[in-house]
Amino acid sequence: MGKYLAIIVGLIAMLAGVYLVIFIWWREFYELVFGAIPPLLFFGGLIALIAGISSVKDAIRTKKLEEEVAQEEKEETKQQEA
After folding, report:
1. What are phi and psi of 16, to 5 degrees?
2. Cα-flanking dihedrals φ and ψ of residue 12, to 5°?
């Protein structure tokens, strides 16, 4: 019985919330949603910027490591030939 009661109470709460947002607090909800867009854009852009910088740093680091490995392999082949 408790499971069904939770479902029924949950549905009633959802309907009450939708009713209040649409008919009573539409203006406040509208302002809240549109007021949240600029911070979301700012922080989303900040995260993208940090991810891009990190990706560039990783690419540079990988390129340096590949060059070092290639140089070490050349030195080893020279030593083996001599």
Report:
1. -65, -40
2. -65, -40
Distance of CA 32 to the CA centre of its chain: 22
The whole-angstrom distance between residue 25's C-alpha and the CA centroid of its chain comes to 30
Percent helix, strand and coil across the chain, each rounded to 5? Answer: 95, 0, 5
Predicted structure pTM score: 0.61
CA angle 18, 8, 20 (to 5 degrees): 15
Residue-wise pLDDT for 11-20, tens only, equals 999 999 999 9
Q: What is the DSSP string of 29-58?
A: HHHHHHHHHHHHHHHHHHHHHHHHHHHHHH
Q: Which 8-state DSSP code applies to residue 25?
A: S
**Nearest C-alpha neighbor of 27 from the set 35, 39, 15:** 35
